[in-house]
Amino acid sequence: MSLKIRLARHGAKKRPYYRVVIADSRAPRDGRFIDRVGSYNPMLPKDSEDRVQLDVEKCKEWLAKGARPTERVARFLGAAGLWDWKAGNNPSKGEPGAKAKQMIIDKKEKEEARKAAEEEAKQAAKEAKEAADAAAKEAAEAAKNASAEEAPAAEAPAEEAPAAEDKPAEE
pLDDT digits over 3-41, tens only? Predict the structure, then answer.
């Protein structure tokens, strides 16, 4: 017969109260038990002394006879110094699987490729703007040089203009 030290639920709806019992592993949770060794009231604050009450002598006796605690009771016994309780969480259990890991890698690669493409587009736009600015600067300099060469020629016809006006008036 395999013995368990486990919790048996009592109390009202939404007001749980547990008894720590020694029971055959095949017995129902709230059914037949061999001995009652403590109680657990989860409604009390965590720092309350009455939250978990254990009969240490009975617990030692049943552990010596081969009873094995459940995870929650092992935590209580570990706090009392009767059982070597280790954290039950398995950190590797929450890791993503192979497909999920591959999807994460693919997503990172796509993001890096998108950023590289954006950077290349920005660089190309910057180079195009610089080329357009340089062309505009050259065009402005060429226009300035052309206007400087044509400026004296433009002044000469302006002086002859009144004479041209006199001729049509004479006709």
Answer: 999 999 999 999 999 999 999 989 888 888 999 999 999
Asked if 57 and 82 count as a contact pair (C-beta separation under 8 A), the reply is no
User: What is the side-by-side strand order in the sheet with 35-40?
Assistant: 52-54, 35-40, 15-24, 3-12, 68-69
Tokens of 72: 């929650």
Give the domain ranges of the chain: 3-86, 98-160
Q: Which two tokens stand for residue 23?
A: 């029971």
What is the C-alpha separation between 92 and 163, in angstroms, rounded?
A: 102
Report the predicted TM-score, pTM, of the whole model to 2 decimal places: 0.51
**Domain 3-86 falls under CATH 3.30.1320.10:** yes
* Ramachandran assignment for 14, one of left (phi > 0), alpha (psi -120 to 50 degrees), beta (any other): left
Q: What gap in Å lies between CA 7 and CA 16, rounded to an integer?
A: 11
